[in-house]
Design a protein that fits this description.
The chain is mostly helical. 78% of the residues lie in helices and 0% in strands.
Amino acid sequence: MSANGTAATAPQQPQDKHRWWALVVIALAQLMVVLDATIVNIALPSAQRELGISDGNRQWVITAYTLAFGGLLLLGGRIADYVGRKRTFIIGLIGFAAASGLGGAAADAGMLFGARALQGVFAAVLAPSALSLLTTTFTDPRERSKAFGIYGAIAGGGAAIGLIMGGVLTEYLDWRWCLYVNIPIAALAALGALALLHDRPGHREARLDVPGVLLGCGGLVAIVYGFSEAEPRGWSDGLVLALLCGGVLLLLCFVRWQTRAPHPLLPLHIIRDRNRAGSFLTMGLATIGLFGLFLFMTFYLQTILEYSPLKTGLAFLPMTATIIIGSTQISARLLHRVPPRMLMVPGMLLAATGLGLLTQLTVDSGYPSHILPALLILGLGMGLTFMPVMSTATQGVAPRDSGVTSATVNTAQQVGGSIGTALLNTIATTSATHWITSHPTRDPAQRSGIAREGIVHGYTVAIWWAVGVMLLAGLIAGTMVTMRAPKHDGRDSEGADQAAGVF
């Protein structure tokens, strides 16, 4: 669109003078959703002891949340388009707070698992609404870059922030406060949303695609559940194979149905776009390595280096800082000047390098000399990647599809994280068992040392797989994301202007 055309749309859609305060509200909600995937990790041993959760079932404190979240995000995105983004944003906040209170008051394992699943359900409504509101609030290319830089920092660093908060709350209060803390955050964000956020009514002419919901969400849940069960049961277990094969079959049926559905849950033109599809794949692969690393490093620091919960949480702080720097100070400043893949590819290469350093871990590795440099490099790489991925994935989307597109970004992140946790943990456990079995000893004094060495060996093998995943993400970003820098791409600018005119 020409400069004159751009100017002509401005009087119809003036910039919201409170848009930066609105960003604070949206960022608060996103922080709560992202950090809740990891905040209970450090608190899990305390919760397990108090509620009598078995070793085989303790994983459900994590996976009940990520399964519900990742599996229902597409439905949440369509609900946001149908009902209205501001309304679903507030409903999601209230429901998430209520579920958090229920989990904090849990009297037994079943109550805690159910509350975590309910948190995931409301997070699936809240997250796409938040990203949609961000997309429609900031339409100027430069301001959009800054806003997505902040949002990307929250999305990337929220998981690490959750580990820090989990350590502080567990050590000084109680593990239950890892759930109660969401209540004041949600209340503050809801009040801010009522006062600051603006949105047009939902598109009532649309209808929810119920068969698509059952096929798509069912397939995702089956696959993630299958990866989760592979760790305790093994890859050859009948249930695991049935879940994985059944999940793939359901997703194939889902794609087939979306070509015929009158009101598809995921319009296939969204993922047919080369740049958008590349962004979705890059996000999913990146979080496979990142979430798996959080699990390994948490256990390594606490069980091998014998760190306290608080010290373990603080050990991730430098990584959080470099994620924020990479997103807000580098990607946000360069995205409107360089093609997105010029940020994504170096970001994935840096992340792979950081993980590669961690493959050299031993039972005697020091934090300053071995772990800290790797976390700094990894964080910088993820910071460079998250922001352009989310901006590219949601750019130029028709207004009525912004909710489902935002949901697909979050689905890639959560499903990738769930798969990464289950898949890499299975690899680590299997490798550790084989290593310990191949080093038998009759000396009781040596068994503990061999077990520790075997555990660390399992971590390093799994991290090597994560390195490969990061390199694959970089390859996909480099070959699929071909979009030019916004100021050099008239087509992208026109799409942004049209979105501004509609909203």
